[in-house]
Amino acid sequence: MPLIHVEMFAGRTREQKRELAQALTETCVRVTGCAPEVVTILFQDVDKQDWAVAGEVMADKFPD
Questions:
Q1: Which residues, 6 or more positions from 18, have their beta carbon under 8 angstroms from its beta carbon?
Q2: Residue by residue, what is the 3-state secondary structure of 1-64?
Q3: Of the residues 9, 23, 54, 56, which has the fewest C-beta atoms closer than 10 A?
């Protein structure tokens, strides 16, 4: 049972997540040969203030 864990900045719409879930499921099925029913996708929204790259907090780099 593939589990795909997607962490991204908060703010994506339900429709965007739905579209991404469909695309990830289709790709996983194509590549691994598994059934779509066994593909699980977990979305985790992360605030920009809780994400840093190379010592720089993303909320500072990408303010709203």
A1: none
A2: CCEEEEEEECCCCHHHHHHHHHHHHHHHHHHHCCCHHHCEEEEEEECHHHCEECCEEHHHHCCC
A3: 54
State the Cα–Cα distance between residues 35 and 10, nearest whole angstrom: 29
Catalytic positions are: 2
Mean pLDDT by 10 residues, the chain (64 residues): 96 97 98 98 97 96 90
Topology classification of domain 3-61? Macrophage Migration Inhibitory Factor (3.30.429)
* Ramachandran angles phi, psi of 5, nearest 5°: -105, 120
